[in-house]
Write a structure and sequence with these properties.
By secondary structure, the chain is mostly helical. It has one domain. The chain has a two-stranded antiparallel ribbon. The protein has a two-stranded parallel ribbon with strand order 3-4. The N terminus is likely disordered.
């Protein structure tokens, strides 16, 4: 579901001109090749698990199988990100009724009542993220990058926050391998995103992908 706030964003609100400087990773052919190969592998996994996941999602909670939401990617450009639905249908309209346990411009609640039983499993195993491989193949996301923010988050960004969007958003990144859902301070997430930009190399991407696989199977910091 698209966030209605997005339609009110002007170009100047999407990203200040002074921060429209793409990171060198955005022009890396090797990074793009890694993304293409990884996304094709991910889409093959989706082909295998789609039918059983679709059945349990629908049986557990009425509504669509997939959930689409407008997010902001490289230089603040909006795109539609996809997930397997892990919340009740219409969850966005219930967001104001749920306490935000995070600090700053992110939203987290460990026991969010909107999450379905199957959705809880999908989130802990990161299976809900699988459809984002389609976003990676399309070039809207990368395997490794920063968490793509929602429109109501970027509307309140300060100048230094925009620097995190100088890379493509990623399925995984520094935040996911350094605490994952337990990181509840937005400024810490920004710090980790800028650390990624400073350390980036194609090899570093592969290291973060390997660490992500460990974090997922070890269920580190997931809820």
């Amino acid at each position: 579901m698209f966030n209605p706030i997005a339609s009110s964003l002007t170009d100047s609100q999407v990203a200040p001109t002074s921060f429209k400087v793409p990171h060198r990773s955005t022009t890396s052919i090797l990074k793009r090749l890694i993304d293409i190969v990884g996304s094709l592998v991910g889409l093959l996994i989706i082909a295998v698990v789609f039918v059983p996941l679709a059945i349990v999602i629908r049986l557990d909670s009425p509504g669509p199988i997939f959930y689409g939401q407008e997010r902001h990617g490289l230089l603040g450009k909006p795109f539609r990100m996809y997930k397997f639905r892990s919340m009740v249908d219409g969850a966005e309209h219930l967001k104001s009724q749920v306490e935000n346990e995070a600090e700053g411009l992110i939203f987290k609640n460990q026991y969010d009542p909107r999450i379905t039983r199957v959705g809880n499993f999908l989130r802990k195993t990161s299976l809900d993220e699988l459809p984002q491989f389609w976003n990676v193949l399309r070039g809207e996301m990368s395997l490794v990058g920063t968490r793509p923010p929602t429109s109501d988050e970027v509307m309140h960004y300060l100048e230094h926050h925009w620097q995190r969007l100088n890379v493509k958003p990623g399925l995984t990144g520094e935040w996911q391998v350094n605490g994952r859902s337990t990181v509840k301070d937005f400024e810490e997430i920004v710090r980790l995103d800028l650390r990624y930009q400073a350390l980036w190399t194609p090899l570093y991407d592969l290291i973060l992908i390997a660490r992500t696989i460990y974090v997922i199977f070890a269920k580190v910091g997931a809820f």
